[in-house]
Structure formats: C-alpha cells, structure tokens
Amino acid sequence: MALLRFIPVLYVASCTLAVVKENFKSCEQSSFCRRLRGFKPEISHYELDLSDIQLTDNAVETKLTNFEDNSHFKISLSAVHGDIFRIQVDELMGLYPRYRPQYALNGEPQAAKLSVVDKSKDHITLQYSDNKATLHAKPFKVEFFKGDSLVAVLNSRGLFHFEHYRTKPSENENNEVEQQKKEDPGAWEENFKSHHDSKPKGPSGVAVDITFPGAMRAYGLPEHADKLPLRSTNGGEPYRLYNLDVFEYEIDSTMAIYGAVPVIYAHSPKHTVGFFWHNAAETWVDITNSKDGNVMSSLVNLVSGTQEHSVSAHFMSESGVMDMFVLMGPKPRDVVKQYASLTGVAPLPQYFTLAYHQCRWNYNDQDDVTNVVAHFDINNMPVDIMWLDIEYTDGKKYFTWDPVKFSNPEQMVNNLTSTGRKLVVIIDPHIKREAGYFLHEDSLANDYYVKNKDGSVYEGWCWPGSSSYLDFYNPKVVDYYKGLYAFDKFKGTSDDVYIWNDMNEPSVFNGPEITMPKDCIHHGGWEHRDVHNEYALTHTVGTFKGLTERSPTRRPFILTRGHFAGSQRFAAVWTGDNAADWSHLAISYAMCASEALGGISFCGADIGGFFGNPDVELLQRWYQAAVWLPFMRAHAHIDTRRREPYLFSEDVKNRIRIALRLRYAHLPLWYTLFFEHEITGEPVIRPLFYEFPEDSEWYDIEDFKIYNGGSHNIPVSLDKILAFYRGGSIIARKDRPRRASSLMHNDPFTLYVALDNKQTASGTLFVDDHASFEYRSKKYLYLHFKYADNTLTSNLIDKTDYPTKEWVERVVIFKPPPGVKGAKLTSKTLGSVDLETSYTSENKALVIRKPGVNIREPFSIKLY
Ligand SMILES: *[C@@H]1O[C@H](CO)[C@@H](O)[C@H](O)[C@H]1NC(C)=O
C-alpha cells in the first residue's frame, strides 16, 4: 500500500480497450432484423375490418388482415388510466401461443373509459379525456391526437409486419423454388459463428413504425453507451435491445449491452409523447429524425401535411405478441409518470444505500475487508458498504464462503456492523455443476434448470466452469431460490448483508453472443428467444422475495446488471464493466439519465472505471462527478492496481475526502428525491429538457456565484466540483463529517436557501427511520420549506409523525436582501427567539445561526 504513494502524480493509463465486435451480431447478421428492416416504406397491406367490431366501455376489438398472405389477427385498442392508449395485436388461431412479458408491468393496467366519437366503414375515432385515437381501415394506421394536435401515427410508413407462425414449406412442394426465393436464408434456422439456432417454430417477427409529427428529438431505449438524445440510425446500425455481457463495451454506440428498456419519448417544445413496446424478445429500433436527412421529411410531410419536424421509430422484435402503449403526455414529466404508472417505481431504498460503496474484484480475505474500512477511518473518509465479488465463495459456488479466506464471515460482518457499515455479496444465476454442491444437486433432482431444445439440461461455461442456469419461470424455482437467502441457509449473513446479482443477462462465456442459445426451453415451454430480455428481471424478483422474507422489516437492497422494463421495482443498476477513461466518465451521466427516463433512477457507474488503471486526475474527477449520480460505488477489475482513495497523496486524498463529504452532506436530498420518486414516479435525476430551464438561475454551491440559464464557460481547477443549486430551491443538508451515514441519523440540518429573482424559494425534506417499512404506516415527516417576504417557514405536507432528534442548526441564504440586522424564530415549543445573523464576505450569503428547532416542529424565521 505504501508503495503507491511514490507513483508519479501523472502516469498514463496504459490499457488499450476494445470490444470484439465480431462476437456480436449486426442487424445484417440477424435474420429477423434483416427481414424486417428490409421492408421499405410503402402503403401498408394490412387492413382492418370495421364492419365487425366489439366495443366495450374501455376497448374496441376487431380483426386485422394481411391481404398479401391472408393471415388474420385480432387487434384491440383500449384506454389505460393516466392518458395512455394500449394497442394489442395477436394471431387469430395461431399455430403456437405467443409470449407476453410477465414481470415488466406493475399489475394489470387500470382501464379507463373510451367513447366513440365518429365511425364509418373506413375509420373509427375513440376519445378518452382530451386524447383521441383514429383507427383507419385501409391502409391500416392509427392516429393519436392530444386535443386537436396529431402527435403520433402508428404504421404511417407501412412498416407494420406480423409474421404469423406457419409450418415449414416442405422440400417437395411445387412452388419450392418460388418459396426459397422469397424466404430469407435464416428464416427457419440460422448460424452465427460456430452456433446454430434451430428455430423449431420458424420466423415469428413483429415490427411497427410510429411517427411523431412535430417532434425534434427522441430519448429513451436504455441501455446503450450513447449520448442521451437518440441519433438517426439511417446508414448505421439500429439501436439494439438484447441483454448481453459485452466485454469492454465501446461508447457512442447503438450496440446492445446489459439492459433493455423498450420505451421511447419524442419531444418538442409543444408536446412530448411516449411509446412503450412491451416485448421481451431481441429487439432492434431504427430512429429517423427529419432534421438529419431529407428522405424521411418528404414522407412525413405526406402524413402530417405540414413542413414540421418529425421523429420516427421502427421497432422490430423476433417473437412475442405486439403490445404497445402510447403515452399521451403532454410534457416530459407526464410521459415519464405515465410510463411509471405502467411499470412501477423504485421503492424507497434504505438511507445507507445512497452513501458511498467500496467494491473491488476482489477483497482478498476477511482481514483485507476489515483493514480497508480501518484505513477509511484513519483517513477520515466516509464509507458505508463493503462489497465482495465472486472470490469470496468456495470455488464460485454461490451461497458458500471460501473456507480459508473467509473462514469467519459472522465475525467479519460483525466487525463491519460494529462501526455502522454493511456488506454486499455477489450471487449470480449460473450454478456450478459439481457433484455434492447442494444447489446443483437440488436443482438436478427437482428439475430447476433451463433445458436444451431436446429437453436435456442446458450446460454453459461461466465463472465456475461448467454451469447450468436456474429457470426462474418455474414458480417452484423462485420458491426454492428465495429460501436460499434465509440466515440458516446462507450462513454468515445477517440483516446487514445485501445482494449483488451479476452476470444475469445471462452471461454464458461459450454461448452465442456470450449468452444462452435462443432455442433453450424455459418452464411453460417458452423458448429463451421469447423471454431473453426478461431473464435478469426474473432473477432479481427471486432475490427480492428472498431478502423480503429473510428480513421482513428491512427494505431490500439489490444491485443487478441485466435489467428490463420494471426492474426498478426490485433493484438498482449500474452501467457494468466500463473503462478507466475520460470518455466513460462522461458517458456515465448520459447512460444513467437515460435509465432514469426509462423508470430506473437508481443507477451509477463504477468509479475509476472497471477495466484499466485511471490516472490520479481521472480518479479524483470521477469521485467528484459520482457525487451527483444516484448510486455511488467504486469498483475495479482484479488485474488493476489497488485504488482505494486513502492510497494516494495528501492532495488527492483531500480532494476525494471533500467529494465524499459532499455526497454525505446531500444524503437528505437524495433520500427525499427517492421518496418523491416512489410517490410520483418522477426520476431522481433529470436531464435539462425535462425541467425546461429557460428562466432558471443556478448558484455555484461553493462560492454562491449566480449563473443564469444558457451556456457558460467556467474555469475549474482540480479542487473545483462544478455543481449548482437552482434559484428558487431550498436544500436540507447534513454538513457534519462522519465515518458512515448511520452515524449521522441524529445530526442537525443546515438549510441552504437559493433565492430566485422574485426573492422566493421552496424545498422539501423527508425524514424517517432510514431502514424499515414504517414509512408506509405514516411514520415519517415530509416537510415543505418556503421562503417568501423575507420569511422562511417549515410545515408538514402530510399528516404524519416521526419522533426524531434531528434539528435545524443553521440557515444559509444565497443572494439575501441587504441590510438584515437579525432574525426572529417562532415555533410552538420555543416561542419567539432572536437569532444571530451574519453576512459572508462580499455579502453573497447570509448565515442564520442556531435556530435550534426540532425538524418535526413547524416554524418560521423572519428576517428584519
Ligand atoms: C474483526 O476485528 C478484530 C479486531 O480488529 C480482528 O482481530 C479480527 O481478525 C476481525 N475479524 C475478521 C473476521 O475480520
């Protein structure tokens, strides 16, 4: 450890990182993507039968026919509570059932009332609140209106295609030559590198286009290591959604990585519309933005009859039903909340989970763990959670401990908890195929594994070597799996031990594209092809149930790498195996902002970068930046040099210490934002377009300097962390430095009041026990702070109570009125008290000392 101090301050990261692109398919190498993308915009050959419709209070259902091959489908349009339309299309009398994701939706969407406003033989218009949908019979398309504005058109480009299941044309059929000519060579079976996909059910793709007239930009479709606004994919690769363990993923790329959230938002200053493609199969999405080319704009002009901008998306999936939600907006806040109303929100996490996490592949042994924490303490750096990667297990057998290196996990955990810390250990879904390993024996005996197409148990290669994969689609597997987290099963764990689910895309080192073959079979007869993007979610559901039953009074904490729409209800995510490179630091913000819009707010990136050695400048900057993402964890590859923040020079340590303390000071803010997320569905972090910043001001949090909206060049030294409070906000902080967040629970608050140009501000604060579910029984405080007319007031928003020792130690007002002589506090128990005030140098801020009031008590402070 001492040696590292002598490493020159500036050394250059020597690693060269590159994804092996050849391991992953391009659209052209995937039969269904090639087929569906190959269709050119045209007049749709699908037609609705409006002569025979079934109408209920909430839905209209009718028949859709592809008059080219005379295949038939049922289609329904329904209204969902919260300004959402839902369109579902499935085969009529299909050869096989089609898969619907089972876990993404947070229960069945609540139906709303739909009324017919207009009907003829070529169209029907339905209304719900100020939203209208017009189904056109021929050519088939659906127009969506907010008020009188056309905001979305489904199948405007005629790219709707539904490949119905059919029997394979036999070799000796007369028109064989004709058939072969039309059929894509990969339609009935397909090879990629050395892998064969047998495709027993043949081609089954579904695709649709949706155009958003007037839209300037689109956002969404996490997870990609790309900028936040979606790019036009004409001439390039579509955005791919297929959960994959991509070794050394590259940035500025539409390649698939670990997670898939098929929701998109099209935005213009006038309205924002969302589209959720509820499908768990491999999906590719082409984006066309009229600003980026002239081909589309001419087409869109045909549609909307105007010269407006527009964005169009073309969704293509390999299998499953078509289940589509159109989120009618009208603002970014509305579409994101509409999406949250479908797929749910992250439940309030425990307070400590928002603090700083220290991880490495691997902490060598239990003494190493104890030592690292001791060094944080010696160096006055806060840390809450230590993490153990795969090496803690006995030979990569999950739910066991290495008998030599981790011989006494109870004592190690006790050592951690005695200083207010927690532990997180990794549990992956691949199971080592080793005779005598209880989990493998149980799984074989009870038929818990995913199968090959011939019904035998599937074997793949992962960390433990030969492995099989638990099939969480079998309810018995979930029951069994959750039981493994019981304290008497997973020895050495306690209420203070939490779980990291990694490698659950699933990652299979010797599988096609490093994952499971698509013709593997899950419980219920579903092919892996149908459920792939949902697999990680089923894994975290099992873990979530396990932790909830193990510790019924503690909120679970799970980190997952693979994820799907709805994962936010069970787990936090991180951006996976990034690299020690400035570009990866920069993209971490775009990636987490995109996840947040996709419902998954609890997101972070490995501080320092997983692969490679960051130079000290990058490492410091990474800490400084990570303060402002919801999940803050340092992690590093096993081949990297140790980089715990106490290993560096005094200068560097000091900067990182300041960053960590800044994080801890703002924990009340993060916690309040997560509480509000659970109530409202609003993201915890928000890109600027979400908040419409035109008339906002920002206050530099260090020197109180004011910036108006727009763009500014601001010089930053290494000591400078660029962060702003928005004019008009009140932020409650805990500024006393501590070793861990658990030791701050009773600490006092400082209220930072950043006035807007009307000399007003407001803010909220959530306070509770930090760990239990008691907040769901009204045992919490939710406060509203308001500053107006030179008076700060605090009041309860909800009629709830939580007895707390937390109190107000100080108030700091940015851009205060001049000439303040003092302040008067009024509260029920304290009565009327005069408070000391003083200005900072240059009168940029006013400090009010020691209000002393308990945070539970409503109060006012008037300046005079
Ligand atoms: C726990 O801490 C004590 C005191 O520092 C130490 O002696 C012991 O080895 C630690 N135990 C483990 C399992 O880390």
TrEMBL record:
Gene Ontology terms: cellular component: endoplasmic reticulum
Signal peptide region: 1-18
Pfam families: Gal_mutarotas_2, Glyco_hydro_31_2nd
Region annotation (Disordered) ranges: 167-206
An example molecular function term from Gene Ontology annotations: carbohydrate binding
Predominant localisation class: endoplasmic reticulum
SUPFAM superfamilies: (Trans)glycosidases, Galactose mutarotase-like
Keyword Glycoprotein attributed: yes
Protein name: Glucosidase II subunit alpha
